[in-house]
Amino acid sequence: MSVEDAARRPLPAPDADTAAFWRGLQEGKLLLQHCRRCRHVQYYQQATCRQCGSEELEHRPARGRGKVHSFSVVHRAPGPAFKADVPYAVLLVELVEGPRMISTLTGSNPADVTFDMDVELTFERASDDITLPRFRKA
């Protein structure tokens, strides 16, 4: 692996289960799966409902708001691609729709993160094909 390759951030590789999710992010929408049978709302995308096993899932846009359920501030980069980012906050956000998702904080000092802090979704274009969901202080 070259130094240039090591400094390049890894990007997600959409598959059949997640393609709609990644397409939604490119369009500025966080899509959650809603089960038509049991009404369970889920994130991360998959072929069946984690609650009842139904395949009757539909994508609906989330409101893009939530609260910090938990967090960690990273002071030591996990690899060369993230060295310029430290320190940064990794958040476990409880979305208003119910599911929790992991992402990072943008636009604020990581030291300012608190439990139950209100956050809102923002989008970071990482490549022509991939847009990443991030959160900022609301």
- Biggest sheet layout: 5 strands, antiparallel
Relative helix content? under 10%
Can you list the strand order of the major beta sheet? 6-5-4-7-8
Mean pLDDT value: 94
Provide the succession of SSEs.
Answer: HHEEEEEEEE
CATH first level: Mainly Beta
Number of strands: 8
- Helices, by number, come to 2
At CATH's second level, what is the architecture? Beta Barrel
What is the rounded Rg?
A: 16 Å
Which strand-content bin applies to the residues? 35-45%
Structural class: mainly beta
Rounded to the nearest angstrom, the distance between the terminal CA atoms is 40 Å
Tally of domains: 1
CATH topology: OB fold (Dihydrolipoamide Acetyltransferase, E2P)
Uncertain runs are: none
Description:
With 138 residues, this protein is mostly beta strands. It has one domain (11-137): OB fold (Dihydrolipoamide Acetyltransferase, E2P) (Beta Barrel). 9% of the residues lie in helices and 36% in strands. It contains two helices and eight strands. The chain has helices at residues 3-6, 19-26, and strands spanning 31-35, 41-42, 57-61, 65-74, 88-95, 100-104, 118-125, 131-137. A five-stranded antiparallel sheet has the order 6-5-4-7-8. It has a three-stranded antiparallel sheet with strand order 2-1-3. Strand 5 (88-95) and strand 6 form a beta hairpin. It is globular.
Topology:
Elements: H1 3-6, H2 19-26, E1 31-35, E2 41-42, E3 57-61, E4 65-74, E5 88-95, E6 100-104, E7 118-125, E8 131-137
Antiparallel strand pairs: 1-2, 1-3, 4-5, 4-7, 5-6, 7-8
Essential attributes:
single chain, 138 residues, mainly beta, OB fold (Dihydrolipoamide Acetyltransferase, E2P), five-stranded antiparallel sheet, three-stranded antiparallel sheet, 9% helix, 36% strand, globular
